[in-house]
Design brief:
The structure holds three protein chains of three kinds.
Chain A: H1 15-21, H2 27-33, H3 37-66, H4 76-111, H5 119-141, H6 166-194, H7 207-239, H8 252-286, H9 293-306, H10 322-334, H11 336-352, H12 359-382, H13 384-390, H14 394-424, H15 430-456, H16 473-503, E1 557-562, E2 567-574, H17 581-598, H18 601-621
Antiparallel strand pairs in A: 1-2
Helix pairs in contact in A: 3-4, 3-5, 3-16, 4-5, 4-6, 4-8, 4-14, 5-6, 5-17, 6-7, 6-17, 7-8, 7-9, 8-9, 8-11, 8-14, 9-11, 10-12, 11-12, 12-14, 12-15, 14-15, 15-16, 17-18
Chain B: H1 11-43, H2 56-87, E1 94-101, E2 104-109, E3 115-118, E4 120-124, E5 129-135, E6 140-142, E7 151-153, E8 159-163, E9 169-174, E10 187-193, H3 195-206, H4 214-218, H5 221-224, E11 248-249, E12 254-255, H6 258-266, H7 284-295
Parallel strand pairs in B: 1-5, 4-10
Antiparallel strand pairs in B: 1-2, 2-3, 5-8, 6-7, 9-10, 11-12
Chain C: H1 2-24, H2 40-51, H3 53-65, H4 68-95, H5 104-135, H6 145-174
Classes of the chains: A mainly alpha, B alpha+beta, C mainly alpha.
Amino acid sequence: MTTTLEPAGQAEPAEEQVEVVWHDAPGLVGFLTSVDHKRIGMRYISTAFVFFFLAGVQALVMRVQLAGPNESVLSPRTYNELFTMHGTSMIFLFNTPVLAGFGNYLLPLQLGTRDMAFPRLNAFSYWVFALAGTFMYLGEFIGRAPDAGWFAYVPLSARAFSPGVNLDFWGLGVIFVGVSTTVGAVNFIVTIFKMRAPGMSLSRMPVFSWSILVMAFMVLFAVPALTVGTALLEADRLFGTAFYDPSRGGDVLLYQHLFWFWGHPEVYILLVPAMGMISMIVPTFARARLAGYVWVVTSLVGIGFVSFGLWVHHMFATGIPPQALGFFSAASMTISIPSGTLIFAWIATLWRGSVRWSTPLLFCLGFASIFVMGGITGVMVAALPFDLQAHDTYFVVAHFHYVLVGGVVFPIFAGLYFWLPKMTGRLLSEGLGTWSFWTMFTGFHLGFFPQHILGLMGMPRRVYTYDAGLGWDTLNLLSTIGGFLFGLGTLLTVVNIVRSRKRGAPAGPNPWEADSLEWSVPSPAPHYNFLTVPVVDGRHPLWSVPAGGASGALQRATPLTAGLEAEPEPEIMEVPEETYVPFLTAVGLAIVVVGLLVEQAVVGVVGLVVALAALGVWLWRTDGDLQ
Amino acid sequence: MDTNSLTPHGPDAAHISGLFWLMVTMGTVIYIVTMTALVVALFRGRQGARPSRFSDNAFIVGGGVVVPTLVLFVLAFATVRATNKVTAPRRDAVRLEVVGYQYWWRVEYHTPVRATTANEVHIPVGRPVDITLTSVDVNHSFWIPELAGKVDTIPGQRNLLHLQADKAGTYRGQCAEFCGLQHTHMAMLVIAEPQADFDRWVRTQARPAAAGSAVFEHQSCAGCHTIRGTSADGTLGPDLTHLAGRRTLGAVTAPNTAQNLAKWIHNAQDFKPGSLMPPVPMDPAELDALVAYLETLE
Amino acid sequence: MWMLILTELMIFLSLIGSYFYVRAGEASWPPPGIEAPPLGRIVVFTFVLLGSSVPMWWAERAARAGRMGGVQAGLALAWAMGAVFFANQVVEFRHLGFGPRDTVYGSLFYAITGLHGAHLVVGLVMNGVAQVKAALGKFDGGRHLTVDVVSLYWHFVDAVWILVFSTVYLSPHLLR
């Protein structure tokens, strides 16, 4: 902790020597013990994509059921399970963790450091996510999938109306995965505050890193409400407490308040990093610096704040007095101002620049054209009276898919095409990428645009079938066809990725001539990230003359900086060795959760002992870590 | 039968659809302008970057702050107006109460006479109606798109919905808050008719049944269903005192015909898997007698 | 650690918010037939708990100065005061006239105080680890991160008790 790195200006160490110091075990051992942010980040991304495709298959099966009136492909129960798991997977197990994965991989590279602030905590939060996801799907495998919707409103989710363990898989899983998100957020924040390369003041930090910072703070404020909401639900279910039981004075709307106090910011927790990605990709392909950096950052921060004032707009139809709703209606509309600012900042960037066409840019443009529409329908449903018609109909289904698929999934695909070459060292095929984009784009609109009309025509959400003669048949059929087209488009990207592993052209360090530090190192990035930790003197380090820095990759350590201006600190951070401890701690917690599920105290205690023992070892070894 | 919120037949739905069209128009203009700017931005630098006549700030402040703020002001004004209209208290309103059950609606009239029915709400045409909403089990949401927006029915809470039909007719709606296995088949009909017809109907509903039925009272039926004027007084299922006068069975799951009724009693799960009405095994003679009796309950 | 405390604080605030939200919807609070928890004894023990921040602060200062004896004494005294408070809570819970399952009031009361109790237990364990480390001579004037972390967490648990105490003990007596 008190040692210092070798000063700058010394000869660069030989790579072989460095490789020995930073060596990571291969194979299963490495898989269970690695604390390298890049391996963890990629693992996050690939695990999340497993859930993405599971959720996609669920969606398509539902679309088959809805393709025509009175179909009987699915039983009502199966249908309910499918839409519950689809929503749960997309929010908790795909969008949130995949963005955490990008953050994990990219943040230290963009900041010019060698790992996250708490590498072992980082491994822990991955394992918690992976185990929580598996736990939630366990119900599906034993035929007891949760079936009360991804929001699990009480009283439907209370023991009286959902007696099986189905809902416990959901409730306990959500609490469990919340641990992962929270721990990850703490890690992001400390990394940003303590580990930026010397000279990288906050005002020089790449926008993606900014977006991760905003997202992490939002997580810290929002997720506790979800944790409390679901914990009280589980207390009611498992221990018979009365929080949500009206017959004992409980209040069912309390759950909705807690859930949406998290749930609405969650939309922006996903959107903000996605917009951060766009803000990195658009300038690169416009070959121009980002217009209005300060506006962009201010807007991201503004979205973070305003998003906490909107939660009640999910509850307009619950009978809350309209005077109180006015505030939430207005706040919901206000958030379109920072979002609009971002859109125009990107347009201004393209306006000044000279565009180079590529797949990542296509996905960005797809994002813009879809998301603006989702934003407009968002303002519409924020208007209280209209929401009374649109709420809980297919109009809303269409709206939030425009926001979450257009606003988050498209940027994630843009990010994949943009950053995967950095992670694997291979470029993806532009031809296949273009095909994939247009198939997804067409499929998306065909799939979701008709749903606006269906909602206006009176089709509620979450119905497993509908009668002929309501005028809903053709639009539903179109929607199903569009859904399959979209699915096909995503598969083309999978093919593209698999193909590139063998046949992709080598990417080189900076295939896109981008400006941020991750592009200064070889692709794939080496274990130690930077042979010499760079010194940053501007917002676009790679577009200016590269400056020398402090070397020191011969130690498993990285420099610390402090303050807004990232002044070097006298102390350095030792990057911990590989360890099983995070994995074991997560396994211990998983056993506790299973114990609660089967209501066996013994199992819970065993889990607690495992987790505490692992944690004890962890704390015992801590002193080299940061505070 | 239409359930289209954009073909309003009452003032509440009309105010909302007016607001909708205003927003769609503004939204479309904004969308086209934004996308045009985007496309121009993409192609104007084809021969290399060209300096822009506008500063970045002009773009960002103009497009991202000034214009949306102006638009939002207009919108906020329209929203407040429409909100005041749909939430304003009504004079001389017909009052009734709707209670959500998994998966049907109980409808209660207190004036001019007390009457109970299910899944069918009769209202006089051209008069405001105040519906008090609550639930006995989970959350549901009462929604007739052609007449008004939706309001949830929540246990332990009494919510109020205003609506009015300007044209006689039958309006369909269905539960809009996910409530379990048969959320799908939890629809309702609102029948708007001239005041005189409405008065006659509600008085009919208030009368007890003329006679009882041995089969109904001795089978398990009476455990869940009430037929006023007989010993059957169960409260878990719909009141059947005037069943034959209703148009549909099982909350608009099937037309109310003798054949469907027999099938429904035999095994409601065939129509509505997950319905809380269990199959009722009965020999054919008994079933025929029961259906014949129920058919008399006009 | 500060970030973790921030998010923990949000958990407490969510619960306390729930408490007042439910209370606002009730005609009488606590519900009829339930006596609000008495104030006398808990006030005394509140001072014990809050007072335990003093020896903790003392231990922190001693660590910075490299006085290991002071560290051990401070940690031990704080530990003892925390443990006494906890023991009193356990005893008092047995004499309250309501349980967590009777009404929403009981559920909220036990959830909030129980969560605080759980935090206190974690604090006691962490304090214990620090004492063992101190006894084994793992700290010196330069290496005392564990002491800093434990003391920060300890102060948080004490401070949040003021919120908890005001909510579940004071508010039913003050706001009628």
